[in-house]
Amino acid sequence: MIIAANLKTNFTRKETNKYLEELESFVSSKNITQEVLVFPAMSSLDDNDTSIVTGAQNAYATKEGAFTGEIGLVHLEEFCIKTILIGHSERRHILGETQAELVTKFNYYKDLGFKIVFCVGEPLEKREAGKNEMMEYISSQYKGIDTEYENLIIAYEPVWAIGTGLTPTLQDIEEIHTELKVKSSAPLLYGGSVKVTNAKEVLALKNVDGILVGSAALYTEHFCSMIEYAQELEGK
Ligand code: 13P
User: Fold this and answer.
1) Whose CA is nearest to atom 9 of ligand 1?
2) How confident is the model at residue 235 (pLDDT cuts 50, 70, 90)?
3) Which region, left, alpha or beta, applies to residue 56 given φ > 0 means left and ψ of -120 to 50 means alpha?
4) Which of 109, 118, 141, 157 has its CA 20 to 30 A from that of 191?
């Protein structure tokens, strides 16, 4: 399974390096064979020599150039980063990234062979509008994306569940994941208020191939427990 931490705008470079060292020591002491990914803040990317794979939370679809406030391929290459998160709801809804921009970014990093964690998920009003409208909305977020890309991972993150402590029911997660699996056979992660208290139940669900964790991943011990749950569920 894939256990991913989105550190968002948290942890300095020093804190991130300490975090990665702690994770590595846990992963090696427990012989963890699950895929662990960590997405640090931009300025916390570094040459860390841990075995934990780090990815970028965002980068512009460019090698370099005049794009104030953005980073490009050269900045990722400096740290041998080959993994990127694209389409997170905070980028879609707070930073205003459009589907067209996300598709451009997706294609750029796909052509470079990056592992892409592509996020989809509905805001509350779409969920409340009923199942059909909600699924149509989520489908529109797949538009233009090569759903058969070999290095693709999809993360389903309902916007209303992110950072709120609210989650869909386990049955809802399983149902939506089963429908989304028809659109793409890529590994499908669930994200949105995954905590140490619900991670095991979520990971145990059919068609859940892992989790993308925000706030709870900031507690090393909690994130390590989630990694261990995934290990226990190996071959579920
Ligand atoms: P929370 O786990 O804080 O709800 O955030 C989820 C998320 O956005 C991961 O990308």
Assistant:
1) 214
2) confident
3) beta
4) 109
Which strand ranges, in their side-by-side order, compose the sheet holding 210-213? 53-54, 35-39, 2-6, 210-213, 188-191, 152-156, 115-120, 83-86
Q: Can 157 be counted among the known catalytic residues?
A: yes
Helix 13-29 to helix 220-232 angle, to the nearest 10 degrees? Answer: 30
Say which of 88, 97, 174, 222 is annotated catalytic: 88
Q: Which domain holds residue 149?
A: 2-234
CB 89 within 8 A of CB 119: yes
What pLDDT, in 10s, does the model give residues 82-95? 999 999 999 999 99
Domain count, the chain: 1
Q: Distance between CA 203 and CA 125 in Å, rounded?
A: 27
- Give the position, in ligand 1's atom list, of the atom nearest the Cα of 216: 2
The answer to whether the CB of 6 is under 6 A from ligand 1 is yes
Beta carbons of 149 and 103 less than 8 angstroms apart: no
Q: For the purposes of burial, counting CB atoms within 10 Å of the CB of 31, is it exposed (0-12), middle (13-18) or buried (19 or more)?
A: exposed
162-217 pLDDT, tens digit each? 999 999 999 999 999 999 999 999 999 999 999 999 999 999 999 999 999 999 99
Tokens of 36: 């662990």
Q: Give the other-Cβ count within 10 Å of 79's Cβ.
A: 13
CA angle 12, 16, 18 (to 5 degrees): 120
| Secondary structure element (H or E) that encloses residue 102, with its range | helix 99-111
CATH number of the domain within which 25 lies:
3.20.20.70
